[in-house]
């Protein structure tokens, strides 16, 4: 959340870069020193018409301009907002439950799921309430009460989301990755922020930003794991691999050989686990990925010619081989055997007519005659 009369590094950063900034110009920054400003990238109605009117840059530039123009909350206002949001949520749920809505249907995680926190999904709450308001199964008094509660609930929820969007940016800057656009990392961090709002309990006594930090970081890390490689690996495997790579760098910095035993000792993993993970194939990439800034050269342009496969030629050769096998199978047994021995269809080497005659108990001339008859019949079949 925000603090009053403190000009943080994020404030100056937004001032300096709001007019001339793209998603790739971010530098790493300690999120604990940052101030979270308001701004809403998640709900479309949060951007006012006057903001859109003078926003002429990229989406990232417009987003940063909008963040800096919004007001901040004090810690006292933050606590009041979270308490009021939780109170409104309980009243709406009680009213929905009164109208026959099952509590399990509002849970963001099912009660039977492992690790369920029992939190209620705000999206489901809003959807159920709006569906109830559209129907005619609610009294006029309850309808008026629910409308008032929903209006205040949306306002407080939107306010709490807006006041922490700068925290999302501060965390996302620590996880910049070429495989994921920075604006996508911010969006995923916003999803984690909304999950934190659903689960936060103000009576615990700690700041909301402290609680939301883990959820925002978790969503960003999951996004990087999903997009890190074409072949997706389990999260525990990726965590262990990162631990192994850090251990390798540490061992080498100490002047020791990066053996499996040293890596296992440095990383704290079992030796068998380290050996099995190091045998995994490396990262995969597309041949169409550009290898220069001009986006004109790709990996395929630099692939050796003998490793490139022409799909049409490959299919044609496979079809031709199948037709040849079918034609040879229709020959008489002795002609088929002579032809197979002569061209190495049975073994890996060709045989002379003398060797063929010895294997079949025929003369060399007779083996040559059978070979000529077989070729003649193949030509007739091919027509």
Give an overview in words.
With 383 residues, the chain is mainly α. It has four domains: 130 residues, no CATH class; 85 residues, no CATH class; 80 residues, Arc Repressor Mutant, subunit A (Orthogonal Bundle); 71 residues, Winged helix-like DNA-binding domain superfamily/Winged helix DNA-binding domain (Arc Repressor Mutant, subunit A, Orthogonal Bundle), CATH 1.10.10.10. Helix 4 packs across helix 5 and helix 15 crosses helix 16. The chain starts with 8 loop residues before the first helix and ends with a helix. The N terminus is likely disordered.
Radius of gyration: 35 Å
Any idea what the shape is?
A: elongated
* Largest pleated sheet: none
What's the total number of strands?
0
Total domain count:
4
The sequence of SSEs as H and E is HHHHHHHHHHHHHHHH
State the secondary-structure class.
mainly alpha
Number of helices: 16
Distance between the termini: 83 Å
Low-confidence stretches: 1-10, 17-55, 110-116
Beta content comes to under 5%
Which percent bin holds the helix content? 55-70%
Mean pLDDT: 76
Give a quick summary of the entry:
This protein is an all-alpha fold and 383 residues long. Helix content is 58%, strand content 0%.
Q: Helices, strands, pairings?
A:
Layout: H1 9-17, H2 49-53, H3 59-69, H4 75-98, H5 122-134, H6 140-162, H7 165-172, H8 182-199, H9 208-227, H10 235-253, H11 260-267, H12 271-278, H13 311-329, H14 333-342, H15 353-360, H16 364-382
Helix pairs in contact: 1-3, 4-5, 4-6, 7-8, 7-9, 8-9, 10-11, 11-12, 14-16, 15-16
Organism: Microbulbifer harenosus
Biased composition (Acidic residues): 41-52
Protein name: Sigma-70 family RNA polymerase sigma factor
């Amino acid at each position: 959340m925000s603090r009053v009369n403190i000009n943080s590094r994020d404030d100056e950063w937004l001032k300096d870069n709001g007019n001339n900034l793209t998603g790739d110009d971010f530098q790493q920054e300690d999120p604990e020193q940052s101030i979270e400003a308001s701004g809403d990238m998640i709900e479309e109605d949060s951007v006012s018409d006057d903001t859109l009117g003078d926003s002429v840059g990229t989406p990232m530039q417009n987003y940063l301009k909008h963040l800096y123009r919004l007001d901040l909350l004090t810690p006292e206002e933050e606590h009041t907002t979270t308490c009021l949001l939780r109170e409104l949520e309980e009243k709406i749920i009680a009213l929905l439950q009164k109208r026959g809505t099952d509590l399990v249907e509002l849970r963001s995680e099912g009660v039977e799921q492992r690790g369920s926190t029992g939190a209620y999904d705000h999206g489901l709450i809003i959807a159920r309430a709006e569906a109830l308001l559209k129907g005619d199964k609610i009294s006029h008094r309850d309808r008026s009460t629910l409308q008032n509660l929903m209006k205040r609930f949306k306002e407080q929820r939107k306010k709490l989301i807006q006041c922490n969007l700068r925290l999302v940016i501060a965390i996302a800057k620590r996880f910049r990755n070429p495989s994921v656009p920075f604006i996508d990392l911010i969006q995923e961090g916003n999803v984690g922020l909304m999950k934190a709002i659903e689960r936060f309990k103000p009576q615990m006594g700690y700041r909301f930003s402290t609680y939301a930090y883990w959820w925002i970081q978790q969503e960003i890390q999951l996004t990087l794991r999903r997009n890190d490689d074409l072949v997706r690996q389990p999260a525990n495997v990726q965590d262990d691999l990162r631990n192994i790579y850090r251990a390798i760098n540490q061992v080498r910095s100490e002047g020791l050989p990066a053996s499996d035993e040293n890596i296992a000792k440095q990383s704290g993993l079992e030796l068998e686990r380290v050996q099995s993970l190091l045998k995994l194939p490396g990262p995969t990439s597309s041949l169409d990925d550009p290898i220069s800034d001009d986006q004109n050269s790709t990996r395929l342009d630099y692939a050796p010619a003998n490793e490139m496969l022409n799909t049409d030629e490959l299919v044609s050769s496979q079809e031709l081989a199948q037709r040849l096998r079918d034609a040879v199978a229709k020959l008489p047994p002795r002609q088929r055997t002579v032809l197979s021995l002569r061209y190495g269809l049975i073994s890996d080497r060709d045989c002379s007519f003398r060797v063929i005659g010895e294997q079949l108990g025929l003369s060399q001339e007779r083996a040559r005659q059978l070979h000529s008859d077989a070729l003649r019949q193949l030509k007739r079949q091919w027509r």
